[in-house]
Amino acid sequence: MLEFELPYPPSVNHYWRRVGARTLISRGGRAFRQAVCATLAAGKVKPLSGPLELFITVYPPDRRRRDVDNTMKSLLDAMQHGGAYHDDSQIIRLSIERGSVTPGGKTVVQIREVQQ
User: Fold this and answer.
1) Domain assignments of the chain as residue spans, ordered by start
2) Residues linked to residue 109 through DSSP beta bridges, in sequence order
3) Strand, helix or coil at 97?
4) What pLDDT digit, counting tens, does each position of 37-95 carry?
5) Are 104 and 4 in contact (CB under 8 A)?
6) What is the SS3 assignment for 71-87?
7) Under a CB-based contact definition with an 8 Å cutoff, are residues 1 and 112 in contact?
8) What is the CATH number of domain 2-113?
9) What is the pairing mode between strands 2-6 and 22-25?
10) Contact between residue 40 and residue 83 where contact means Cβ atoms under 8 Å apart
11) If you ran DSSP here, which 8-state letter would residue 46 be given?
12) What is the rounded distance in angstroms from the CA atom of residue 10 to the CA atom of residue 72?
């Protein structure tokens, strides 16, 4: 099982930007992706190749109302880009939980390969 602590992800509402006819990852989204990649590289994480279970706890930075599901797209894409797994289609079980308010916010991720 892999476990790591990552920054609090941007919501899907802030992850993408439209520039004319193009849709791009926002500046904040790119910064988040780089931080995730750096954390995974520092932990020498190798991509898992089988079916996966993910257990995620998001700790919001403040008490504003947030939908935890809005944070998943940027988080799962960043972990794939950082090399935690080959493709997020490998995920067969995804558990998301909101933790307590934590200054600056954070995300704790556990990934387990499932034997089928």
Assistant:
1) 2-113
2) 4, 56
3) strand
4) 999 999 999 999 999 999 999 999 999 998 888 899 999 999 999 999 999 999 999 99
5) no
6) HHHHHHHHHHHCCCECC
7) yes
8) 3.30.1330.70
9) unpaired
10) yes
11) -
12) 9
The pTM of this model reads 0.90
Which residue from 44, 66, 56, 43 is spatially nearest to 106, judged by alpha carbons?
A: 56
- Name beta bridge partners: 5: 108
SS3 assignment, position 4: strand
Whether 108 and 10 have beta carbons less than 8 Å apart is answered as: no
3-state secondary structure of 13: helix
Cα 3–Cα 86–Cα 54 angle in degrees, nearest 5: 35
Q: Could you tell me which residues come within 8 angstroms of residue 29 by beta carbon, excluding any fewer than 6 positions away? A: 10, 14, 15, 16, 74
